[in-house]
Request: fold
Amino acid sequence: MSRPASVELILSLKLDHQVAVVCDGQESHSFQLDGLFPDQQNGKIVLTDPNETGQRLFSALFPAGSIAFQAFEKRPRRTLLVAPDPAVHAIPWKYLYGPDGYLVLAYRLYTVCERKGWAQEALAYNMLVVAWPRIKEQGGKSMKQESLL
Reply:
């Protein structure tokens, strides 16, 4: 089975601080914005543990059984988050941490390269992001084979 090219998640803030998630045009689920980040000071998010924060974000965005989770399980090559509301857009989505680690690998390196006008380097980091799951999978197979020898 081939991997889908992309999945689009539209995140809309509702009046009751619920974020509605629409996945490729289908209503998926909603999650509560309040309490998503328990560590805050003066209304600003404090990241004490990026992995834990990323896992919490992943659970909110891809809860088991949801349409969004089903789309994620198909391992799309790209996931596009559309967050028109400033409060939802300000969430540090770059820390999304799923079963295979961070979803946005090399995000900071890509951003730095893009800002500095280093198009080739930015492209290389972007290609690394796309290839990383396969690299990780092959590396694991290699490690298993070596341990059998």
